[in-house]
Amino acid sequence: MTLTSLEKPYERAAERRKQIGEGTDQALFKVVVENPRLSLYELARETGWGVGKVDGSVKRLHEKGLVKVECFIKAGRRVKLISAVDYESSPDVFSVPQDILDLASWKDNAHVYGLDRLTIGVSGKPVPEWDEAAVLESEVPVKRVTKNLTFRLPKKVVDFYALEKSIVTLSTVKDVVLLTVEGQFC
Q1: Contacts of 142 (CB under 8 A, 6+ apart)
Q2: Residue 32 CB contacts under 8 Å (≥ 6 apart), including other chains
Q3: Short-list 144, 139, 136, CA closest to 124
Q4: Chain segment 113-143, per-residue pLDDT in tens
Q5: Do the bridges between strand 38-39 and strand 77-84 make them parallel or antiparallel, or are there none, so unpaired?
Q6: Quick one: CA torsion of 139, 89, 27, 22, rounded to 10 degrees?
Q7: Could you tell me the pTM of the whole model?
Q8: Where in the chain is the domain with CATH 1.10.10.10?
Q9: Segment 85-95, tens digit of pLDDT
Q10: Class of the domain covering 3-84
């Protein structure tokens, strides 16, 4: 057997791996566009793939200039968030699906409370307990966009919590929204 006869099967196998990788990359890119700022682990859960497969695909997409990778520290661990390069996040705008809130108290304005160094409370009506304990208070307009309630936090809140450099988790309980500052980008 000559060297040239061995090259063909290896070339075909390499070409096949490249095609599979391109298919993987296309499928992952679609998920990233539809779900920006997911971690590698969350992307793996979303696709049903292993974290290693997702990481390899993210590296190829990043090299092609299709995705950006943002890192932040959460509970002492480095976490990567993946999004399309044209995705623009806004540290002061939040949207909440209307169907997870008790909308009876949400009218035209939301009440924003800086509850502690890591927690921002947002409610459709004043919360007396939060009025007493809050380090910051403000009222902001609420917009109903498709099936979401959207509000923009005031600059003093964004600055106090350094939201432009932070990762924020949104959670809801009945008719209130809690924004938790989880970590800062590295």
Answers
A1: 106, 107, 108, 109, 110, 124, 149, 150, 151
A2: 38, 43, 61, 67, 82, 83, 84
A3: 139
A4: 999 999 999 999 999 999 999 999 999 999 9
A5: antiparallel
A6: 180
A7: 0.66
A8: 3-84
A9: 998 878 899 98
A10: mainly alpha
